[in-house]
Amino acid sequence: MNMDIAAVNALPYEDFVDILGNVVEKCPIITAAVWSGRPFLSLAALEAAISEFIDALPESGKEGILRCHPDLAGRDLQSGSLTRESHEEQAGSGMGALNSGEASRMARLNQEYKERFGFPFVICARMHDKENILRQLSARCQNERAVERARGIEEVKKICHLRLQSLVLTDNRV
Ligand SMILES: NC(=O)N[C@H]1NC(=O)NC1=O
Question: Where in this chain does the record put each Oxo-4-hydroxy-4-carboxy-5-ureidoimidazoline decarboxylase domain (predicted)?
């Protein structure tokens, strides 16, 4: 599936949500909401609409988005119940191939992070390898809650950007 922005703009909302509903993990309400903003002049304009919708949410809503994300190398990966997108991202960054030391460190730090902040550690896995993810997780456990809320949302937007790129052709294609 790789449509251009004109084809995206022509979609009835049912198809729009079916195709683009997971660009923010398990948050199809965001996709469904921005459909009202058609026609989008470009993929960048669609991405900006998503970003503005997220930014307009109260802090509780932003935390809710973070809570819809599965842990990296967590129980959904073990049980095979990740979304297709998340599975590809986690596999690509080596989350499915941690050695036992890395796996237990990851589980311990993920737990520590969640206990401290009340939402999971979120990072754009496609932009990092496993060593880098573990280093960032450990460092980010030390931050303030508000800093981490904002940081997590930045990462959600990076994930969204890459998911959109794989679904919609960019404007300057031949
Ligand atoms: N917790 C977390 O960061 N999850 C994710 N990151 C990513 O790139 N895909 C995910 O599912």
Answer: 9-165
